[in-house]
From TrEMBL, chains A, B:
Similarity comment: family membership: Belongs to the group II decarboxylase family.
Coiled coil in keyword set: no
Cofactor: pyridoxal 5'-phosphate
Pfam families according to UniProt: Pyridoxal_deC (PF00282)
Protein name, as recorded: Histidine decarboxylase
Coiled coil feature spans: none
Superkingdom of source: Eukaryota
Keywords tagged on the record: Decarboxylase, Lyase, Pyridoxal phosphate
Record PTM N6-(pyridoxal phosphate)lysine, positions in chain: 357
Length: 526, 526
C-alpha cells in the first residue's frame, strides 16, 4: 500500500491569524436580521444594494475574519514537483521564502466546530442566538469578499429573491432529466426548458439532443469525455496543455491514453503540434477536448482549424469525437460578432458550459449538451447496470435549474448580448489602463480575461482574490465588475508597485514568455 | 460509431395530460407572495407550517400540474433487457400493458420554455408577473408533492430560514476543503466543522482523516472506489448485487474488474458467496463496497463478517480496501443500540453518507471521509495534473456545508438519536399495520425501510411517490413521516386493494422470493 506524505508548496510567512468565530456558550448576542431591501421584496436585493445599505462601499480594511493565509490560486495550482520535501520559491528581488503545506491540516485552525446543544438550550434560546451571531458575521465577511473579488469568472451580481420561497423544498431531479422518477419534488420542467434554450444556442434540434444540468464545469468535462470514450473505447484523448485540470483527471479516472498538445503564446492549441501528435496514432480514433476559453488566459481554441487538421490527417468524421469545454466563453462567444461559432452543425459531440460563471448562480452548476445518438450509445453500454443511468451524478440539485431558468427568462438573448459587450469593453479598458501605467498585460480577442504580472504582495493578491499561476495573474471581467472597481484596483496596484519596485529602482519581472514580447513592458521589452 | 436506438420500458396507458404552465404573454397575473410564517422570521417556517397556513392539509386531490406519467421508480430502475423493442409487462390478473419510452423525449411536452423578453417588458412589469405566477403555482405543487411523499429516504422536514440571507452569495469551496483558494467567497470553516463531526462519529482522529462534502451519494461512492483503485491499481471490485447502481457505474467508468456477490433474502451480502468469489482471485487485491443500508430493502451488510471472510481467505489488511456506502443508514446506525459499528478502528478505507437524506437539505449533498494516508496516495498519483486535486468535482457548492452545519448544531447527537428512535418505532408501526391488514411486509432490523407488494394501481404509486422495483415497493420512514400520515396511507391502500383484488376474489401476488416466506401473506404463505 502506498503511504506517502503529500506536501505542496505555498508561501506561508505569517503566523496566520485565521478567522475566529468563537462560539462562547451563553453569550448574550442577539440576531440582527438583514436590513430590508429597497425593492421591498421578501428577499433583499442584489449585493450592491446590500453594500449600500450597510455603508460598506467606503470600508477599506479587510474584515477581521478574512483569511490571510489564502495564497494558492485555484484554477490551476502550481504542481508540486517536489512532493516530499519543502521547496523554496524565488521571489523578485532575490528574496526567498519557504513554502510548505501538509494537505488536510491548515483549515482546522479556523473551522467552526459543531458543538452539542445543552439540555436547556431550547428553553433559553441561547444556541439560536449564538448561531445567528455566527451567521451574521459570516454574511458580513461574504459581502466584503464579494465586493473585492476580481480573479474568478463568477458573475456575483444576481437577485434571486423571487426564488427564496422554494428554499424549503428538497428538490431533486435524480437521474435523467427527460424521464421522471416517482419522486415528485423535482424541477424537470424547468431543467428541460433551460436545456432547450442551450440546444438552440448551439444549433441542435430538440429531438436530436440530450443533456442535463450538472454540478459544475468538471462534471460537464467528465461527462463529455466519458461519452467520447464509450463511443470510441480505444480512442486517444488529445487536449492542449492549457486545458482545465479536470480533462487530465478524466483521462486518469477513465484509464485513457492522453496526448498533451502544445499551445501558442495566446494559450490556444497549437494545431501544428496537434497534427504531429495525431500522426503518431493514426490507427486509433481521436477524442479531442477543445477549449472555448482556457482557464488562465481565456484563449479560444480554433474549432474550425482543429476539424481541418483532423480531416487533413486522414480522420474521417466517424473516427473522432470533439468535446467543447465552454466553461465560461461557451456562453459569451455566441454573442460576439465574428467569433468562430460553436455549433452542432459542425462535427462536434458535446458542449459544456458553467452556469455559475457568466449567468451567475449561488451554487456551482453547468449545462451539458450532447447528441442523442451518443447518449443512446452510452446508455446501451451501461444498461446492464441501470437502464437510464446516463448522468455522472445520481441525485441532482433541483434548485440550479430554477436559477438558470429564471435568469434566462429575465435577460434573454438580448440581455446576455448587452452584458457580453459590456464585459469586453471593460476588459479592454482594464488592459489599456494597465498598459498606460506600465504594467504589461495581455487580452485575447473574444475574451474578457486580462493577464498580467503576478503582484509581489500576497496580501494584495488575496484582497482582490486574483487567480495566479507562476509569474502571472488574471482578472476576469464579469458583468458585476464596474469601471469604478477596475479603477480602484489599478490605482492600488500602481501604488503598491511603486513600493515593490522602489519607484523604478528595481526591475519589474519579465513576463514575455507568458504573455508575449509585444505585451511585456519589462526593461527589455518596453 | 455506435448509433443505437435506446428504448426502455414503462407503463404508459394514459394519453398523459402533462403539467401545463402556459406562459401567456401579457397575462395580467400578479405575484402572490407566500404567507408570513408564524415564527415571524423572514423566511417562513417548515413545510408543515406552510401547509397549515394554506389549509392544504385537507386537500385530497392531486394538483392539476401533478405529472400522471411518473411511473418508473428511481433508485434502481428496471433493467431494459430488450433494448431495441417494446416489451410488455405482465400485470396481475393477466392484464398486459405495453411499456415504452424513448430516452430524451417525454418531458418535452411539459417543459417550461424560456422565452425572449419583449422590449417593453421592463416598463410594463408583465414578464415579472408572469414568472411570479409560474413560480407560485410551482410552489403549490411542491407543497402537495412534499405532503404525500413516502418512498424516498429524504427528510423533508427542515427550516433553514436563518440561512436565507446567504442565498445572495456565490459560495464556492472549489477544490480541497483544507486548502483555501484565493476565491474568498467560500464556507470552508463550516465544511471542516461538519467533516470533524463525522470523523468523530466514525472514530477517526482529526489529523488522520481527509474528507469533503460531496454533491450526492454517488459522488461519495465514485470517490471511495477511486481511492481504492489508486491504492490498489489492479484490485478487483466486489459488491453485492443489491448495491447502489453508482457502484457498478464506477467499475465501468474506472475500467475495473468487478465481481457481483449474491445477497441473502434480507438484501445483505451473502458472505459464503463472497468467500467463493474471493477464492477465484486470491492473487489480486480486493476493493469491497459494503452497504450500510441497501437502496431497496435497507439491508445492512455485516461489516465484521466481511472482514472476517477476507481474513479467513488469506487477505491481509494491506491487501484490501473497504468502502462503506452509508447513504442513509450511515448516519442512523450510530444511534441504534446493538447495531454493528461503522468505525475506522476497523480496517476500512472510506465511508460516505448522504446529507439530504436523514439530515434533510434543500439540495442533494453528502459527506465523504477517508484516511489521510489514502488521499495522500491519491494526490501523489495525480499530482502531475494539479497538485491538490483530490475531489471528484472542481467547483463545489458552498451552501450545502452551511445547511449541514446548521442542522448538526441545532440537533446534536441527542437530537439525531431521538429522531432515529422515532423513525424505527414508526417503521415498526407501519409494518404491523400492513401485516394486520393482510399485506405481507418486511422490515430489516436496524432499518426504517418497509418493503411490501407493489401496488397494482400506478396512480396510487405516484400519489404516494413510492419507489418500486419489480414486484415490490417500499416506504422509507423518515423524521417527517408521522403516524397520521402512515395511517392515511394504509387506510387508502386497504381500500384500493379491495378494488384491485375484488374483495379477495382475486389472489394478491406472492412476494416470498423478494421478502421471504415468513413475511409473505399470499394465499400460499399466510
Amino acid at each position: 500500500m502506498m503511504v506517502h506524505k503529500w506536501v505542496i508548496t505555498r508561501i506561508s510567512d505569517s503566523s496566520s491569524s485565521l478567522p475566529q468565530y468563537p462560539i462562547t456558550k451563553k453569550a448574550a448576542i442577539h440576531f440582527a436580521p438583514p436590513p430590508p431591501s429597497k425593492k421591498g421584496s421578501k428577499m433583499a436585493g442584489s449585493i450592491d444594494v446590500m453594500l449600500r445599505e450597510l455603508n460598506l462601499e467606503t470600508v477599506e480594511s479587510l474584515p477581521e475574519d478574512f483569511d490571510p493565509t489564502t495564497v494558492i490560486s485555484d484554477p490551476l495550482p502550481a504542481v508540486a514537483d517536489d512532493c516530499c520535501g519543502v521547496k523554496g520559491e524565488k521571489l523578485v528581488n532575490g528574496k526567498e521564502k519557504p513554502r510548505e503545506i501538509v494537505l488536510g491540516r491548515n483549515v482546522h485552525t479556523s473551522c467552526l466546530e459543531v458543538t452539542e446543544p445543552d439540555d436547556d438550550d431550547e428553553v433559553t434560546g441561547d444556541r439560536e442566538a449564538q448561531m445567528a451571531s455566527v451567521l451574521a458575521r459570516y454574511r458580513k465577511s461574504l459581502l466584503e469578499r464579494t465586493k473585492h473579488h476580481l480573479g474568478y469568472p463568477y458573475n456575483l451580481d444576481f437577485d434571486y429573491g423571487a426564488l427564496s420561497q422554494l428554499q424549503h423544498f428538497s428538490i431533486n431531479n435524480l437521474g435523467d432529466p427527460f424521464i421522471e422518477s416517482n419522486y415528485g419534488v423535482h424541477s424537470r420542467q424547468f431543467e428541460v426548458g433551460v436545456l432547450d434554450w442551450f440546444a438552440r444556442l448551439w444549433e441542435l434540434e430538440k429531438n436530436e439532443y440530450w443533456g442535463y444540468i450538472t454540478n459544475c464545469g468538471t462534471e460537464g468535462n467528465l461527462h463529455g469525455i466519458l461519452v467520447g470514450r464509450e463511443v470510441f473505447p480505444d480512442g486517444i484523448l488529445y487536449a492542449s496543455c492549457e486545458s482545465h485540470y479536470s480533462v487530465f483527471k478524466a483521462a486518469r479516472m477513465y484509464r485513457m491514453d492522453c496526448e498533451k498538445v502544445n499551445t501558442l503564446i495566446s494559450g490556444e492549441i497549437d494545431c501544428e503540434d496537434f497534427r504531429a501528435k495525431l500522426a503518431l496514432h493514426k490507427d486509433k480514433p481521436a477524442i479531442i477536448n477543445v477549449n472555448i476559453g482556457t482557464t488562465v488566459k481565456g484563449a479560444v481554441d480554433d474549432l474550425d482549424l482543429v476539424i481541418k487538421t483532423l480531416e487533413e490527417t486522414g480522420f474521417t468524421h466517424d473516427r473522432f469525437y470533439i468535446h467543447c469545454d465552454g466553461a465560461l466563453f461557451g456562453l459569451m462567444m455566441p454573442f460576439v460578432k465574428l467569433a468562430p461559432k460553436v455549433s452542432f452543425k459542425k462535427p462536434i459531440g458535446s458542449v459544456s458550459v458553467s452556469g455559475h460563471k457568466f449567468v451567475g448562480c449561488p451554487m456551482p452548476c453547468g449545462v451539458q449538451i450532447t447528441r442523442l445518438q451518443h447518449i443512446n450509445a452510452l446508455s446501451r453500454n451501461v444498461e446492464y447496470l441501470a437502464s437510464r443511468d446516463a448522468t455522472i451524478m445520481g441525485s441532482r440539485n433541483g434548485h440550479a435549474p430554477l436559477f438558470l431558468w429564471y435568469t434566462l427568462n429575465r435577460k434573454g438573448y438580448r440581455g446576455f448580448q448587452k452584458e457580453v459587450q459590456k464585459c469586453l469593453r471593460n476588459a479592454h479598458y482594464l488592459r489599456g489602463r494597465l498598459a498606460s501605467s506600465g504594467v504589461g498585460a495581455m487580452l485575447n480577442e473574444l475574451s474578457s480575461t486580462v493577464v498580467f504580472e503576478r503582484p509581489q504582495d500576497e496580501e494584495f493578491t488575496r484582497k482582490w482574490q486574483l487567480a495566479c499561476q507562476g509569474n502571472i495573474a488574471h482578472v476576469v471581467v464579469m458583468p458585476n465588475i464596474t469601471i469604478d472597481k477596475l479603477d480602484d484596483f489599478v490605482n492600488e496596484l500602481v501604488e503598491k508597485r511603486a513600493i515593490w519596485y522602489e519607484n523604478g529602482r528595481l526591475k519589474s519581472p519579465c513576463v514575455a514568455s507568458e504573455i508575449g514580447e509585444a505585451n511585456c513592458l519589462c526593461v527589455l521589452h518596453k
